[in-house]
Design brief:
Length: about 150
């Protein structure tokens, strides 16, 4: 597995990939001098830059999701949330085929291996509040603000 780092407007991210397939994209503390760089990582980071510049709404990155069947269904449901919109944990659980599994959906979302690409920042509490985000609520709000989301 190779890895590369990129500085975004909300901090460093670490991409783990192999054979032009992304396995993980998560927030981290900084650059690792041993990290590799490839055409694939440069393309992923170009798409991230375009997203942060407001030019990209949907990522076109080959990804491999490793998890349980339920987790994979939850992560796939995240891709159905349109740019600038939000859904609740309950709605995501329903989309994953288990409408009563709100907590399970929340746990799967917490384990999302591909932050931003699989937009877990677009999931909010049933009361409309911003809840839980692996990168911190400040980053979640920043991403939603970037997308033009309006709290109701």
């Amino acid at each position: 597995m190779e890895h590369a780092f990129h500085l975004t407007p909300i901090g460093w991210v670490r991409l783990e990939y192999q054979h032009e397939v992304a396995y993980r994209l998560n927030y981290c503390d900084g650059e690792d001098p041993g990290a590799s760089s490839s055409l694939f990582s440069c393309e992923v980071f170009r798409q991230l830059d375009d997203y942060f510049a407001g030019k990209l709404k949907d990522f076109k990155v080959e990804c491999c999701l490793e998890g349980t069947d339920f987790q994979k269904r939850v992560w796939q449901a995240l891709l159905q949330i349109p740019y600038g919109q939000t859904l609740t944990y309950g709605a995501i659980a329903g989309m994953a085929g288990s409408p009563n599994a709100c907590r399970g959906a929340g746990q799967a979302i917490h384990r999302n291996p591909l932050a931003i690409i699989y937009p877990c920042h677009r999931v909010i509490g049933a009361d409309g509040s911003l809840t839980g985000y692996g990168g911190g609520l400040e980053k979640k709000k920043w991403l939603l603000d970037l997308e033009g989301w309006q709290a109701t």
